[in-house]
Structure formats: structure tokens, C-alpha cells
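Aim 2, interim progress. The first record below pairs a target sequence with its C-alpha cells.
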Amino acid sequence: MNNPLSNARTCHYHEITVGMKETRDYVITSEVYEKFLAAFHDYSPLHIDEEYAKSRGFHGRVMHGSLLNGFISHFVGMYFPGRLSLLLAVDLRFSNPSYLGDAIRIDTVVSQKVDAHNTIVLDATLSNTTRNHLAARGRINVMVKDES
């Protein structure tokens, strides 16, 4: 079995600088959507009933906002800062809905470092590149626990 940690990037706290930018792309696939439903059982009709969602003025089933939180969790834990990080807080403001098959780009910039706690603050923009609109914007607080 492949060790998932072998794919995790490692950025040490001292390597991270204010102004540093990182970007990663994700896609809301059927697999991601179905596993989310299986794990959390949020069967609101806006999320699972195509016709109901359309009757409410949406293009189709609206994807759960928490899917974007899942992408952020992956981004922080596996990509930046990676395997030495612990996600402390996420504050997202959703702007526009996303749909099955949409591509989401996470753009971050390090806006602050707090040396006393080895934490960083990322300003994040989540863009729906399929529909060319802002999906969400927010701040992410992360502790980077360097190895001793």
C-alpha cells in the first residue's frame, strides 16, 4: 500500500515568509461529492435534487460549501505548509455556488507570521475557474510544528 505521507510536501516554519504565495487546483468530482454525502449525510434538496435546485434558480445541485473546506484541509496538510502543519482555524465567506465538475483554484498569500506560536495566517481566495467567478474568500490559521 502506498504511504500517503510520501506525497506530502514539507515546508519548515523558518522557510515561510510574509508575502509568500501558493496556488493549487482542485475539481469537485463525483467521487468527492458522493464520499462527502456518505460521510456527513447532508441530503438537503439543494444539494442532491437537480430539479429542486433548478426550481430555486440555481444551475443544478449546489455543492456543499464544506467541500471547499475539505480542499483547504488537503492544501494545508499535504501541500502548503504540508506535513508539519496543523490547521487551527478557517474563516470562509462564500460568494457564489459551485457545481459538480467545477474546478476550484485556491490562491493563498502569507499575510502574517507569529513566531511565538509558530503560526502563519494565509489570506485565501477560492476561484471557480469553470464558471469564472469567486467561490469564497477567507483566512486560514496554521501552526507549523517543526520536527525536533
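The second target in this work package is listed in the same format:
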Amino acid sequence: MTTDASLDVVGIGNALVDVISHETDEFIAAHGLVKSAMTLIETDRAEELYAAMGVAIETSGGSVANTAAGVASFGGRTAYLGRVYDDQLGAVFAHDMKAQGVHFVNPPVHDGPPTGRSLIVVTPDAHRTMNTYLGASAFFCPDDVDAEIIRSAQVTILEGYLFDRPESQDAYWTASKYASDAGRRVALTLSDLFCVERHRDGFLPLVRERVDILFANEAEACALWGCDEVGAAVERARAEVAVACITLSEKGSVVVSGAETHEVPAHPVDVVDTTGAGDLYAAGFLYGYTAGLPLPRCGELGSLAAAEVISHIGARPEISLASLLDG
């Protein structure tokens, strides 16, 4: 890896605020929510539910935002690019990212929809009902890409979730060109099976032409390459990207690079909530990768970070990940 970078990792993704409140089942029924599901909602519905929710915890969220926070928790130097509106939740997002050691780059915008949010209702049985409003985050475009930040980072990681709008796809090509031209690395996390199924034809050329490090679970990898089983997808990944990390849930992960194949076991843990597992796996791996560690150790750090986040409720570490490292 290059050593002249002032940042280890910069992430680009949906800048969302997680708004978490504890409510009754009667609240779920009264507002017509689909219990335990994740539902995408529009502006009016987002404002209505936000106003109705009781005392809540508001924190920065989003897949690659979680990854950036995880790298920072290990002690890495990180930044984040994302689009928020000039409103209360936009200020919450910016403050919270900075508080976690992540340099949040983009100033708030003054036109378009309000800041995106994931409204999370936790009922007494510990079920999480999520209503997600993408808002301003979905309109990330090439103008939101800070060329100097991209050039200053060893790795830029892109989030598959932000691939729905044409301007965001253009932003990914723009950011990846800045990175490639500067001799930096580009990583992509495929994010979600349905995301891959929607955008396979858009993902494939990006993966082949610009992506150096790919993160995917087995279902996402199989969907991307049209394979019936994960072994075939691993071989396709080996042929098309410099490094591929395919996560296999409780079976751990497999990391391939050229002729190398490394099977990495899952870190032992009592699972409480799997939210954020893939995000934190990427954080651990990229922390190790940018520190110049061998690929098997990078995978181990990914497993370690994923285990910490699934041991409790929420998608961010509850302790310093640096404290988990060997002396």
C-alpha cells in the first residue's frame, strides 16, 4: 500500500440518521406499521412518524458510515462523503460522525428533500420495526465528490445501497476515477441481495473496471455473477477483482486474491443483533489492509469487528475496537 496518504479510508454512501424510540404494540397498530419489517417511506410519512415518536436516540447511520466509524474505532484515519440537508437531523449526522472520529466532508445542502433517516421503533419484545426515508442522501451526485479527499485516502469504499439514482452512479464513476488516477484503491460493498438484482448490469462494469476490493455475502456474490453456488462465485471474483471478501455468516469468510485463498473462521460470539455485521467486517478488513497487514489477518480483524457489533443491539461498536487488538 502507498504510505503518502493522509487518510486510510474514505467512505461514500447514504447519510442517514437512525432515530430509535421504544414504543408499544399499540403504537405500531395505530400508525399502520409493518412490525419487524423495513419499509421505505416518502417525505410526508417520514415527517408524520418522526413527530409521533416519543423520546428517541438520534445517531448517524448508513452502511458505509458504519464502516468508516468502525475503522476510526480501530484507530484508523477516516472521512465520509454523504448528502444531508440543512436541518436538525443534518446537524445531528455531522456532529455524530465527527464525535466518532470521522471527518465528515460535505456541507449541508439548501435545496431538495430533508435529511434521510431510519425511524426505528423497538417494542417490548425487542423487535425492531424500521421505516427508512432516504431523503437528501439519495441525491448524492458528482458535485458532492471531493476530489482532494479521494486522492488523499488509501482506499475509497462505495456503498451498493447508493446506486439507485443515475446521478449517484455517476458520482461513483467520478470518485473511482479520482482514486484510480491517484494510484489509490477502490472498494465496493454490494450491500443487499435486492440491490444487486436491481443493478447487476450497472455493478458489473464498475466492478471489472474500477473496483480493487469487493465485499459481498454469498447470496450477493452469486447474484452478481449469476452462479448457483458460492464456489463458482468465488472463482469469478478471483478473476475479476484484485481482492474479494465473501462472507459466509457463521461459517466465517473466504478472502481471495490471485492464486491466494484464505478461509477465515467467524469469531465466537453470542449473537444478539446481526445489524451492521457486514459493515463492521469491512471496517476490520480495511483497517488491516491499510495498515499493510497480511490478508488472513485482515480477514481476522473483519471477523473480530463483526463479532463485536452483533453481540449487542445497534450497528456501531459499543467499545473501542482498538482495545480488542493484540498487545
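The chain has one domain: 7-14+63-106+139-324. This observation will shape the mutagenesis plan for the next reporting period.
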